[in-house]
């Protein structure tokens, strides 16, 4: 059985930028984005990143890839800010996304 796939949204407070990705382990990906030694990647330029939203995107990688690409192709900061808002309920093509509750300190 394959693990579920997630869409995750990171935010860089210093650069005021968002990043959208997909993974099966969003906590590991956050750590990777903040610590990997490759300094020529998009995310390495805007460290540190904070995990601001996570959505279950299905059990198939292809579903997660389609959703990630759809969000990125919108080129819409407004859409990403809506997705980050805990009161926003995804609809239309985004309706399959199910918010993963975050544990806060």
Query: How much of the polypeptide forms β-strand, as a percent range?
Result: 15-25%
Order of helices and strands: EEHEHHE
Strand order within the widest beta sheet: 2-1-3-4
Total beta-strand segments: 4
The separation of the N and C termini measures 32 Å
Q: Summarize the amount of helix as a percent range.
A: 25-40%
- State mean pLDDT (0 to 100 scale): 92
Give the overall silhouette: globular
Low-confidence stretches are none
Overall radius of gyration: 13 Å
Topology, please?
Elements: E1 5-12, E2 17-23, H1 26-35, E3 50-58, H2 61-73, H3 77-84, E4 98-99
Antiparallel strand pairs: 1-2, 1-3, 3-4
Provide keyphrases for this structure.
single chain; 105 residues; alpha+beta; four-stranded antiparallel β-sheet; 3 helices; 4 strands; globular
Describe the structure.
The chain is an alpha+beta fold and 105 residues long. The chain contains three helices and four strands; from the N terminus they run ββαβααβ. It has helices at residues 26-35, 61-73, 77-84; strands spanning 5-12, 17-23, 50-58, 98-99. Strands 2-1-3-4 form a four-stranded antiparallel beta sheet. A hairpin with a 4-residue loop joins strand 1 and strand 2 (17-23).
